[in-house]
Design brief:
By secondary structure, the chain is mainly alpha-helical. The chain contains 27 helices and no strands. This is Regulatory protein, luxR family.
């Protein structure tokens, strides 16, 4: 009797010291049924896992008590079971590094067995590797667990593994943008949904509804059908969070936060704020990563809804989140925003009369545009007139040349011809032929006028010829005006042989493959 009392006291005392809250009485009653330290350790671990709303700090302190209750000489199986329970407790409280450390120790014992514990650890390995981005390892362990569940006809575990595989492929899609992974994600999630929606616990149902809602948001590309399904699954998740008494508060907070983010993304920051506030209410006294994630959603909603005072109060109240929120906040100084809201800026004269200003500017630019176009048209007309004048001069000159040539021929055929008169005629003809119509100064003016009227033609010349000289360029421009070699000679004040030499040189400068370019240029408009 004394031995049992002493044993009970040794077991109960550390638990009472470490568990000073509403759970005291319940744990004390359960420990009264223990027969030894090993049983007590199991009872404490079971108590932690069943009471998921225990604070992280208290859960870990009780876990240390459970570890101390196991004797050093306990067999390997007892320690393997302890490490598995410890892994589950750390996993629930999102201490992933400690969770996987304990799962590995437990797996060393169960790996070569057919125990359900082996399957559970492999599932957890898959979950953790998914969270940490080690997708190939996650896939390996999740399919090991899934195949074992199928072989043993464990429909519950098979459905849970299918849900985990669906989430794994969704995470892979988010990182790699692989549409095949997204389709696989939806297929496995729907497989899991058939069993979990009918037989699963409330927590599994809620998490799977949230997961499917997120997956559908990417598979339907904003279609009305996709939006409807997206909303449907979120509503089911929120209903479970509202009504279930078994879902932990932290998990409820997760569902509300995901729903708030969905509402924010579809342009309803007002409803996002309401749901984010509900989510934060669940975790405001907890120490968890989910608390920061919800705080971000809530703070973002306050800013979008221009509730700057509320955002500032939230910022000040939860000082432990300030560093993270400072990195996240949309604006650099919340007090500046509050000041701007209380002292709205007055519109300037331009902002008040922007329509009139716009009309005046449009009218001004229209006038400038019309003026520029008219000026361009006038310059084009002047250039064309200059070319026409040159053509007229050439025509007149040709008439004069023909007249002098005819008169000289008649004088040569007349035996009584006055040699003095014939010499004067020949001198006049020579003077005409040697006097150019285009001097160097006149050529610059002619060149500008020609290029203004025949812009395409002049731009094509460098494409078809290499190293064209100014003399050859004159030849090409005058050919374009329809002048023959004789007329070109008259305009330039050179011999017809010199003109033919220009054509010969251009023939050698034609770009390879453009041998017929002369006829193309001469016949182009």
């Amino acid at each position: 009797m004394i031995k049992n009392c002493t044993l009970y006291f040794l077991i109960l005392l550390p638990c009472l010291l470490l568990c000073q809250n509403d759970f005291n009485h319940k744990l004390t009653q359960q420990l009264q049924s223990s027969k030894n330290f090993k049983d007590s350790s199991v009872i404490v671990r079971k108590f932690i896992q069943e009471n998921e709303n225990l604070s992280t700090k208290e859960a870990f302190r009780l876990l240390k008590v459970a570890e101390d209750l196991l004797r050093k000489d306990s067999d390997k199986k007892l320690w393997a079971e302890f490490y598995l329970d410890a892994g589950e407790i750390y996993f629930h409280h999102l201490e992933i590094d400690k969770a996987i450390e304990n799962y590995i120790k437990s797996y060393e014992f169960f790996e070569l067995t057919n125990s359900p514990n082996k399957q559970l650890i492999e599932s957890r390995f898959g979950n953790i590797y998914t969270q940490t981005g080690n997708f190939s390892q996650a896939e390996e362990y999740l399919f090991k667990a899934h195949n074992h569940a199928l072989a043993t006809n464990d429909k519950e575990q098979a459905a849970e593994n299918e849900a985990s595989i669906g989430w794994l492929y969704y995470m892979e899609y988010m990182e790699k943008d692989d549409s095949v992974k997204l389709e696989s994600s939806l297929n496995y999630s729907k497989k899991a949904y058939k069993w979990i929606d009918q037989y699963g616990d409330d927590l599994s149902k809620m998490k799977l509804n949230v997961a499917i809602a997120q997956i559908i948001s990417f598979t339907h590309n904003g279609s009305s059908t996709g939006d409807s399904a997206y909303y449907y699954y979120f509503q089911k998740a929120i209903k479970l969070a509202d009504t279930s008494k078994t879902i932990p508060l932290q998990s409820k907070a997760f569902a509300y936060n995901q729903y708030a983010r969905y509402l924010f993304d579809i342009g309803r920051p007002d409803l996002a704020e309401v749901n984010a506030e509900k989510a934060f209410e669940f975790v405001k006294n907890m120490e968890s990563f989910e608390k920061l994630a919800i705080a971000k959603t809530l703070y973002k909603s306050y800013i979008e809804n221009k509730k700057f005072e509320k955002a500032a109060q939230f910022f000040e109240k939860y000082s432990e989140l300030q560093d993270s929120l400072r990195k996240f906040e949309k604006y650099s100084n919340i007090q500046t925003l509050i000041h701007q809201q209380e002292n709205p800026r007055k519109d300037s004269w331009i902002e008040k009369h922007w329509e009139k200003v716009l009309i005046i500017m449009l009218a001004f630019f229209t006038i400038v545009f019309v003026f520029v176009k008219m000026n361009q048209k006038r310059k084009l007309k002047d250039a064309q007139n200059e070319l026409n004048q040159l053509s007229h001069k050439v025509s007149t000159l040709n008439s004069d040349i023909s007249k002098y040539e005819d008169e000289i021929i008649q004088l040569k055929n007349d035996s009584n011809a006055n040699m003095i008169e014939m010499g004067e005629k020949e001198a006049q003809l020579k003077d005409i032929l040697e006097t150019p119509l285009l001097t160097d100064d006149q050529w610059l003016s002619f060149k500008q006028s020609f290029e203004r009227v025949n812009n395409d033609y002049s731009k094509r010349i460098p494409q078809y010829f290499s190293n064209v000289s100014q003399a050859e360029l004159r030849y090409l421009y005058l050919i374009k005006l329809g002048l023959n070699h004789k007329e070109i000679a008259s305009v330039l004040g050179i011999s017809s042989d010199s003109v033919r030499l220009y054509k010969h040189r251009l023939g050698k400068k034609v770009t390879p493959g453009k041998e017929n370019v002369l006829s193309v240029l001469f016949n182009s408009n």
